Amino acid sequence: MSQTVKVISFTILHDEGWSRETEKYDVSAQPINKYFSKGSFSFDLLLLGNDVQSFLEELKEKRQIISMDVVGVTKKFGLLRLKHRSGGTISSLVRRFGGIIVSEYVNDGLENWKIVLRSRSARKFRERLTDYGNVVKYREEMLRDFTDLPSPSQRQLQILEAALRAGYFDYPRKIRSDELAKSLGMTPATLVYHLRNAEREILEFYVSTFSSQ
């Protein structure tokens, strides 16, 4: 028997967790590539803003963070790899209800989520969500009306990671594009193509998201 599916978008001021700290800094965060294991989950975290380095230092002190690998960081951009405890997280709540996380970003202390969930689970999910904090916005729509938000591909993230580690985004640059391309076994034109596509997808996401607020 077929089941109807809803796309649920919500904004929440989470009572626990590191997201509240973004209210104190000029920084926005986008968790991506989330993988779950027993009692924890791992993900990459993209950071944009003028206070990336200050926010990173505070993030290191959060008890929910089991481990943190700084892939690369500049004054206004950062890429981290985190292992996070599952307890008290909205990620674990979504997973418990059998939902799929489509996108999430954090800004000004607020967590903004878009998930896909079976329609029959939507009411109980909303009731349970209120236990996690103040739900500022909440909207449900049928899947047929849903348009996915852009996010970097795994290949794009691999190249971004290599570029960050090598200092390609530093000022002045620590490595030229032809040198980076050679280390990755590709032509400079291919490297620039992938980097520009990745940068465009990330920027389009933030511009479209923040301009609509």
Q: List the strand order in the largest sheet.
A: 4-5-3-2-6-7-1-8
Give the % helix. Answer: 25-40%
H and E order: EEEHEEHEEHEHHH
* Strand residues, percent: 35-45%
Low-confidence stretches: 145-149
In total, the number of strands is: 8
For the sheet with most strands, the description reads:
8 strands, antiparallel
Given the helix and strand composition, which structural class is it?
A: alpha+beta
Ends: how far apart?
39 Å
Counted up, domains total: 2
Features:
single chain; 213 residues; alpha+beta; 2 domains; eight-stranded antiparallel beta sheet; 6 helices; globular
Describe this structure in words.
By secondary structure, the protein is α+β, with helices and mostly antiparallel strands. The chain has 2 domains: 5-145, no CATH class; 154-211. It is 33% helix and 36% strand. The chain is built from 6 helices and 8 strands; from the N terminus they run βββαββαββαβααα. It has helices spanning 52-59, 90-96, 119-129, 154-166, 177-183, 188-211; strands at 5-14, 27-37, 40-49, 65-73, 77-85, 100-107, 110-118, 133-142. Strands 4-5-3-2-6-7-1-8 form an 8-stranded antiparallel beta sheet. Helix 5 packs across helix 6. The protein is globular. It starts with a strand and ends with a helix.
Could you give the topology of this structure?
Layout: E1 5-14, E2 27-37, E3 40-49, H1 52-59, E4 65-73, E5 77-85, H2 90-96, E6 100-107, E7 110-118, H3 119-129, E8 133-142, H4 154-166, H5 177-183, H6 188-211
Antiparallel strand pairs: 1-7, 1-8, 2-3, 2-6, 3-5, 4-5, 6-7
